[in-house]
């Protein structure tokens, strides 16, 4: 560097310096062809992978969604315990509303008229007894139904079990009825209203598409081939789309996923942004090595005549439908485009 | 390469070799200025975009959150069906607890005294009839209320419909009352307790900020201007912040989102990490081409006199509030800083 | 460039050109050693950080999960209000099913026999009065229990409060009982069935591992040391693993997180992909400056004798358990490997 004229001049000279490698130009068919091939690969990668496949020129956003569901349908049952009985939505959807999920009862074990009293425990390793000495007052087995009173009583003509303080009579320890009591649930329909939003692009849309009119909505049922835009689903269709059998699943219950995918390219016309529905069984149907297969829970309806409280215990088997909304939207934006194309060119600069 | 002295010497020589391009130094105002300008742009990009805007020197973590809510308020209604009646939280929040959501009933259609019996179906295309031949025993329309018995009976003086086995009397097919029955719900308040955690930084915080004392908490109500830190919200304020009218929304119901954003820069004082509340209507209020507008569901209260089970069916319209917690925290960490600054310098190296 | 022979020849020549910097070879121990050291650091970074630590050669996917829970256990209580009473799962799990969460009631304040009538308000700043003039008919305090009738009546021998129209008798404004009424809840167990899926790799697995048989499942209880694979958890163990005391927490209630982490390297044997359970208290237990500490809500059981509707109001304190499933799976894939190793080599190219 020139140092005549003091420090200031030196910095000035240095500031306007530019250093570049001396370049050797090779004119060779072989070397040149390889060079151009590598360049072509990189340009192909930038255009093909970054731009076309990954849409690197777009800014992306993930979906915000709200889901409401409404089940419709009537089932008639004829059981010895309850006689002829009609079930409607207030009877079989429990709890009546959830955030993005709904449960439809398909089978049940009903134990009516329970009240707080004493009765013999269901036979089991810890409950069987031959005399009062086998029972311990105050003991309660986690898998039992009540708290032992310390007495050993007749469960049946042949078996004696410890007496328990419990909601008596106890629920019978039986397998769920087959065929399921609410087998008619396969014809129930559910309307799923899904409203989505991409906050970054201030873009909203709902699964009742603009071209759908009210008349169509009151009559349609979703079908992948004939009615792919109808937001009303027959429960049997949801289950069979997931390669399962409704009547099989209804016996022990299970969990189904209703997946709604909104992948939108907002550089394209808005009408191309439509939901795609897929259905999948979420729990494990493999019956081996499983305790409590399927999906069930117990709930009770409480009655009182002013003095004694009685309840009807229902062990409800059924299908829980979880609605899951996924989605990613992209829209052209100069910043990600520059970043991605720049990175591609940098890569090219390295290999040339 | 020098190959005298065998393979070992060759490797040794090769190991201590360093190759660098021959550099051409250009002293030109024009070229130098362009060179420095490009360098300035890249340094500006690294400092401005990577460091300041994107905080590339920070390690980030996403929020883990737990939400509990508690609604308070009393409403008095005077209807012909029920007379003067007071509603409290156990009456209008259904179900009584959910994970990060709560539903407040604002309007309803009540059908008391239903029991399993026969009655004429509500008139519709499939239910209207002129003789028994028009009705099919055992047929149940998905949109109907019961299972047809095969008889055609008088619905009113002028209309005949098929008789159904159902919970009778049937719910009347009417629009929800206007003004809404629980119009007073606009004055209800909700306390939202939100506890967040950034597991990577072992950082916890809650939306009841340290400077808030108990006396303030028992009296305050959130207001963006005067009380931005109070975690108690009046329902009307939530709805009006989202540019909606509570009384309009209360008629048919809807879904509101309560968004809590915790964006924390943990290199800054902890007291700067405060929640930001925003409110948004999540469902679609557009009334055209929509079946079942708003948000409603049916539930029942069951009674029994020991022999006959009766129920009160309630079609509940109301607002579901979904509490959504977002957030990202960043804290200085040497690894992402090196990676980001390194990538910036590499970019600079390419273009110099 | 050679321009004899026209434009076509020029392009042809240009296409097969390759330019490379002239290289200066320096044979110096010092410079060579520094050069090799930098190369070693970069290679170490690529191999150590990118390949081993970050597994940059793998494609990753995040987990899809479904959770079902089943609580078991019996509690015996002896209170003046209800006498000897047994509680089972239908009594203390409210609501009976939720998506990935369950609530177990541990303590309560019961107010039986409420009906719509008049009674004096609980004393408070807005409810205390000395004459009818202090009460305003129709006024309802958000934190009160009813709508004032405008009369001032005796609350007790010493205090007068405004009369309200409400569900009377009112719930007493007392602290939750200590010890908690359902203290026995610490021995309840919960079976958590978790089925996960990595959709990109079509890989499914459940937390009941293949080597577990049915006999083991009916008897085991999770223990970090002796039974780390058992999916049945004692509630007390969950709470104490989070360094909390169950009986303390049971008084006011709280929120517990059950975290299940599935981090799977699918290049390894499938049997290495096992869930890891961790437990954490999610709400804030700090009792200072908090309104409504813990977790509680009110619900009611409704009864009717055909004319008058009565209800039992229960303020339920308890623990809400949120099951959270996390996870990331990785599997070798050529594309991310090339991208990551390529970026590493590019970095190396720059610094050599």
TrEMBL record, chains A, B, C:
Residues that, per the record, bind ATP: 70-72, 189, 315
UniProt record similarity statement: Belongs to the P2X receptor family.
Catalysed transformations (reactions): Na(+)(in) = Na(+)(out); K(+)(in) = K(+)(out); Ca(2+)(in) = Ca(2+)(out)
Membrane topology term: Multi-pass membrane protein
Species in which this protein is naturally found: Paramormyrops kingsleyae
GO biological process per UniProt: calcium ion transmembrane transport; response to ATP
Cystine pairings recorded for this chain: 119-168, 129-152, 135-162, 220-230, 264-273
Cellular component GO terms held in the UniProt record: lysosomal membrane; plasma membrane; postsynapse
Name the record gives this protein: P2X purinoceptor
Keywords from the UniProt entry: ATP-binding, Cell membrane, Disulfide bond, Glycoprotein, Ion channel, Ion transport, Ligand-gated ion channel, Lysosome, Membrane, Nucleotide-binding, Receptor, Transmembrane, Transmembrane helix, Transport
Location of the protein in the cell: Cell membrane; Lysosome membrane; Membrane
Functional note: Receptor for ATP that acts as a ligand-gated ion channel.
Positions in coiled-coil regions: none
GO molecular function: ATP binding; extracellularly ATP-gated monoatomic cation channel activity; purinergic nucleotide receptor activity
A Pfam family matched in the record: P2X_receptor
Coarse class of the protein's main subcellular location: membrane
Known glycosylation sites: 187
């Amino acid at each position: 560097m020139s140092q005549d004229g003091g420090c200031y001049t030196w910095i000035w000279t240095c500031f306007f310096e530019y250093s570049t490698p001396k370049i050797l130009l090779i004119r060779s068919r072989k070397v040149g062809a390889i060079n151009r091939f590598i360049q072509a690969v990189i340009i192909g990668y930038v255009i093909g992978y970054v731009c076309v496949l990954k849409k690197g020129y777009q800014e992306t956003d993930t979906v915000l969604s709200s889901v409401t569901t409404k089940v419709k349908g009537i089932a008639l049952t004829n059981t010895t315990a309850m006689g002829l009985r009609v079930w409607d939505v207030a009877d079989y959807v429990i709890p009546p509303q959830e955030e993005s999920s709904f449960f439809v009862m398909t089978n049940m074990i009903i134990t009516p008229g329970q009240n707080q009293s004493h009765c013999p425990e269901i036979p089991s390793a810890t409950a069987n007894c031959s005399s009062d000495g086998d029972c311990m007052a105050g003991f309660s087995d986690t898998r039992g139904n009540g708290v032992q009173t310390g007495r050993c009583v007749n469960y049946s003509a042949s078996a004696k079990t410890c007496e328990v303080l419990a909601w008596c009579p106890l629920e019978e320890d039986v397998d769920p009825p087959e065929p399921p009591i609410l087998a008619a649930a396969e014809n129930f329909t559910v309307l799923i209203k899904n409203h989505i939003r991409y906050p970054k692009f201030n873009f909203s849309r709902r699964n009742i598409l603009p071209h759908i009119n009210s008349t169509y909505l009151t009559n349609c049922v979703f079908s992948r081939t004939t009615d792919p835009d109808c937001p009303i689903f027959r429960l049997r269709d949801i289950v069979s789309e997931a390669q399962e059998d409704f009547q099989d699943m209804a016996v022990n219950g299970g969990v189904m996923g209703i997946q709604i995918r909104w992948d939108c390219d907002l550089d394209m016309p808005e009408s191309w942004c439509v939901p795609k529905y897929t259905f999948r069984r979420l729990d494990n149907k493999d019956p081996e090595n499983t305790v409590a297969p399927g999906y069930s829970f117990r709930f009770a309806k409480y009655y009182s005549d002013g003095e004694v409280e009685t309840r009807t215990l229902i062990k409800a088997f059924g299908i829980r439908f979880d609605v899951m909304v996924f989605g990613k939207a992209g829209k052209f934006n100069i910043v990600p485009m520059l970043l991605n194309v720049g990175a591609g060119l940098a890569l090219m600069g390295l290999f040339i």
